[in-house]
Amino acid sequence: MIPQRFQPILFAAILSGLMSFIVAGIATLRSVGMDPALITLWTQNWLFSWAVACPTAYVIAPFARRLSLRMTAGPE
Q1: Is 0.85 surpassed by the pTM of this model?
Q2: For residue 46, how many other CB atoms are within 10 A of its CB?
Q3: Which of 4, 46, 63, 76 is the most exposed place for a label (fewest CB within 10 A)?
């Protein structure tokens, strides 16, 4: 089992992986249509996207967390 202290890193990796997978799939499908090479192209695009999205998530997460805390009300 992974220690709890690594949860934020794991969360960012999983979230960025899933989000980039979905977005890359939609973008690839819109770009090439139902091409026989769709799965190969999707995978290639996803791996590149994830390579950008994962480090970006690590950098942006603290800012997004602070912004979301400012935009929401505290306990009442």
Answers
A1: no
A2: 20
A3: 76
